[in-house]
Amino acid sequence: xxxxxxxHTARPAPALDDDRPPPARPxxxxxxxREVAHLLVNLLEGLAGFVYTVLWLFPGVALSVTVIGLPLxxxxxxxxxxxxxxxxxxxxxxxxxxxxEPGPMPTRGGRLVRLRLRLTDPVAWRTTLxxxxxxxxxxxxxxxxxxxLLMAWPVLAYVxxxxxxxxxxxxxxxxxxxxxxxxxxxxxxxGRGVVVDTAAxxxxxxxxxxxxxxxxxxxxxxxxxxxxxxxxxxDPDAAAKMVDEAHGEVKxxxxxxxxxxxxxxxxxLTDRGLDAALSSVAGRCTVPVSVRVDLKERPAPAIEGxxxxxxxxxxxxxxxxxxxxxxxxxxxxxxxxxxxxVRDDGQGGAGTDRGSGxxxxxxxxxxxxxxxxxxxxxGGPTVITAELPWRGRTAEKD
Length: 398
Known about the structure:
The chain has helices spanning 2-10, 30-62, 69-94, 111-119, 122-151, 156-175, 180-231, 236-264, 267-272, 274-284, 301-322, 357-366, 393-397, and strands at 289-294, 327-334, 337-344, 371-375, 382-389. By secondary structure, it is of the alpha+beta class. The protein folds into three domains: 17-178, no CATH class; 193-264, Single alpha-helices involved in coiled-coils or other helix-helix interfaces, CATH 1.20.5; 268-397, Heat Shock Protein 90, CATH 3.30.565.10.
């Protein structure tokens, strides 16, 4: 008997398996007492979660037809995510259930976009359901565990195993991160909002440029030609001078229209591709720029346009802010990605802080499943790397 007891106590405890509950243990080891503590605390957690949920959910639903209802629901769901994080931490500490934390909520896009994403957050809604279920379950766990402790001590390990098995299943099913599909849908919804905002801003810019530039020149041209027409017979020399001035206005208006068209989609990009288009942009930069484009095929037109305008804006930033003496632009393909790298030997210190031009670029690339990274220590050099999905004709055929 003594030898058997020694062998039993020396045997290591079975390893915790996250996918199934531990086997029943008649011995009262540290794991058993952690499970007992978890079951007793269930009542407090369930009560706190239930009260919190009732305080925001019912008023938010009742006031959803007013201006404060939806923001109240969004704020409550944000708090539900915090409750879920605390519950996962308790499950890790007392039950050994290790579940990955869900990804953060997207922060890009306008206020309405963020509000919609918050209201449709599956992680927060599952945590809300978890908080509702915890109160009746917590009352049951507290009562059964307390009675077992006081009156049925020999079966305590079996009771805690049964109850915590339900707890583990509940945590895994309701507090796990969203599926990859849910995360991807949220990212695409956010990206769509960014694209819509960007397109609206571009349309306003085009309208402003037409109104303040080419349109104003054409109005002045029409007035000048009208005056010249009146003076043709009375003062031919003055009329000829007016016509000459109008001819100059026509040239300026045409140049402004060409610049505007280049800002929408340059003809050289359509006709000759990124190599020629970026060489043209580099030639207009105030800093000497070397361009190297290693692409055997052309990506999809939309991706080509994004790459062109990304490099164009980066070179404009170099001209305006970098104090660089030289810059380099490289483009190449790596499997199904188009990679862009722009370097300069300027003063550095660039970043994607909110409100900066680089932050806008990062949002635009993110809206098409792209990436944007900035390495710009103080004193330089600055290296900016961007990735875009290829989506070329060859990839589509494959």
